[in-house]
Prior knowledge:
Blueprint (H helix, E strand, L loop, with lengths): L1 E8 L7 E7 L3 E5 L5 E6 L3 E4 L6 E5 L7 E4 L2 H10 L8 H27 L1 H8 L5 H19 L17 H18 L6 E5 L6 E3 L4 E5 H6 L3 H16 L2 H10 L1 H9 L5 H13 L4 H17 L6 H10 L15 H11 L12 H8 L4
Parallel strand pairs: 8-10
Antiparallel strand pairs: 1-2, 1-7, 2-3, 3-4, 5-6, 6-7, 9-10
Helix pairs in contact: 2-3, 2-9, 3-8, 4-10, 5-7, 5-14, 7-11, 7-12, 8-10, 11-13, 12-13
Amino acid sequence: MTTGPAIYFDGLTSARHDVTVEATPEVLRIRAADGAEIAEWRYQDLRHQSAPDHVLRLGRTGDTVLARLEVHDPTLAHTIDEHADTLDRTGAAERRVRTRVIVWSFAAAVSLVLVGIFGLPALADRIAPLVPLSVEHKFGLAVDAQVRSMLNPGSSKGPFECGLAAVEKPGRAALDNLVKRMETAAGLPIPLKVAVVRRADANAIALPGGHIYVFQGLINRTRSADELAGVIAHEIGHVANRDGTRSVLQAAGLSFLFGVLLGDFTGGGVVVIAARSVMQKAYSREVETAADRYGVRLMGKIGGDVRAFGSILGRIAGGEPGISILQNHPLTKDRIAAVNAAAGDAPAPAQPLLTPAEWADLKQICG
């Protein structure tokens, strides 16, 4: 094993990190100054990037973020070259980039014409349903990584995501039980990835690609499993209707459209814009109403309390302290009435979606 210094960029910020690289015969390990492992790269995934003659600059093929490694140590660079026998230094990758630039330029011209004809919001409505699910999945991974970096200040007492510690796993199991029932009933073409994170605000957000974040503050303030399920069902509605993709397209404009056309979201700028747009998630009244109705129908399918979501909306409208979810959405008495009307004459469920023991476990998912 050869060890040497290098400079690492995580692809999420512009900060440079002095690291130590271990070039083992199997993988390339990147360690922080304190010895903690930052990343582990397989040699077959390495991609050579243009750099001065004395620098070996590496990225990873198919990486969802623009992480890169710069090696100035000639001995370490030579060892990496020996292990990475598939590493291309011929410039073929650069030629592919130039080809992409040409294609992007053509796409830009076409896109400008479309924007001029339809306007960006209307264009987003037309294009969002046409985005292949595989593209949305890839883009969702990049947005998810950026959102995690924005949400996690690194100051929480435990890991950013709840449900990982042994004492929290019963809560995670209860959440998985609830989400599995909802996912089965929803029948979406993409899997849901629901996580509870250590954030004090009572909120939840849905990202492109089926990622849903439930904040600890929401868990603390919901009064029943059905209320929590009602909020999650609403967010699943946004996933089903592809509202996150539509919102990102409206916010990022042509940059996202280029990515849709090329299936390439390695550019950091559009990912940052996308993450900010889903964090703000100021959807229109029509979009929120559609997600409300979807959530009510989904709650009915799983035998939940279809009025539970209306109850928490009512508390929000009444200004209950500490509840922020949907406060930046169009919210009126008419909307609450529409939720209750969609519930119709459905009888109250015979039992809650989770047993009292499961609900107690879920309330403690963050310890």
